[in-house]
From TrEMBL:
Pfam families: Thioredoxin. InterPro entries: Thioredoxin-like_sf, Thioredoxin_domain, TMX2, TMX2_thioredoxin_dom. Residues 36-231 form the Thioredoxin domain. It is a single-pass type I membrane protein. This is Thioredoxin-related transmembrane protein 2. GO terms for biological process: brain development. Keywords: Membrane, Signal, Transmembrane, Transmembrane helix. Residues 231-258 are annotated as: Disordered. It comes from Vulpes vulpes.
């Protein structure tokens, strides 16, 4: 890790190597760094070097060198936070197709109460959460497969709208592991959510896979019921989901609406 961190930072800065070549200082520093690794790790160059290791292996770092490299790695990561982005393998933001409506702190309550015959599945997420970003393409694919007039998919950023997280009891603390949270709304009321929350306020372990979401939320059954109700029209009782009446959608709320 002590050697890997500087190398990752170096690879990330490849587009800026042209600036290094224009300044001999940076080029010389890079050559000295590579030369140190070659001399210290490559036999037979390292065979004659002194060592303080107990096993007497001269081609491996001793404790003093490890401490120095760890200290230098910490400085590199502090100076270049983008290198930490690569080391944590943070997934990129999903920019693919989806049929999802994005809510803010005002529109989420209005939309859930607009037509109580519509069933909503809403994801509560935060952009800084790796789990949310990993689940984004799965949720988008589900919206493309199952979205219809009586079954809609929505998202709300509780990292940005903290009052929404309080109102719907979704903790944004990384310790609770409640992000992302999926909540099923029928008749404007919460029916179920995943993950479930224990008595200590922590999320019960649950895998956000496409198969688990389809099974736990009965998406196939909800989809078929919503399609039948949308064909039946106004003869369906109020409490059952049917096609929502066409309404104007506020600008900027959905990628599809845009």
């Amino acid at each position: 890790m002590a050697v890997l961190a500087p190398l990752i930072a170096l690879v990330y800065s490849v587009p800026r190597l042209s600036r290094w070549l224009a300044r001999p200082y940076y080029l010389l520093s890079a050559l000295l760094s590579v030369a140190f690794l070659l001399v210290r790790k490559l036999p037979p160059l390292c065979s004659s070097l002194p060592t303080q290791r107990e096993d007497g292996n001269p081609c491996d770092f001793d404790w003093r060198e490890v401490e120095i490299l760890m200290f230098l790695s910490a400085i590199v990561m502090m100076k270049n936070r983008r290198s930490m982005f690569l080391m944590t393998c943070k997934p990129p933001l999903y920019m693919g197709p989806e049929y999802i409506k994005y809510f803010n702190d005002k529109t989420i309550d209005e939309e859930l109460e607009r037509d109580k015959r519509v069933t909503w599945i809403v994801e509560f997420f935060a952009n800084w959460s790796n789990d949310c970003q990993s689940f984004a393409p799965i949720y988008a694919d589900l919206s493309l497969k199952y979205n219809c007039a009586g079954l809609n998919f929505g998202k709300v950023d509780v990292g940005r709208y903290t009052d929404v997280s309080v109102r719907y009891k979704v903790s944004t603390s990384p310790l609770t592991k409640q992000l992302p949270t999926l909540i099923l709304f029928q008749g404007g009321k919460e029916v179920m959510r995943r993950p479930q929350i224990d008595k200590k306020g922590r999320a019960v372990s649950w895998t956000f896979s496409e198969e688990n979401v389809i099974r736990e939320f009965n998406l196939n059954e909800l989809y078929q019921r919503a399609k039948k109700l949308s064909k039946a029209g106004d003869n369906i009782p109020e409490e059952q989901p049917v096609a929502p009446t066409p309404t104007e959608v506020p600008d900027g709320e959905s990628k599809k609406d845009k």
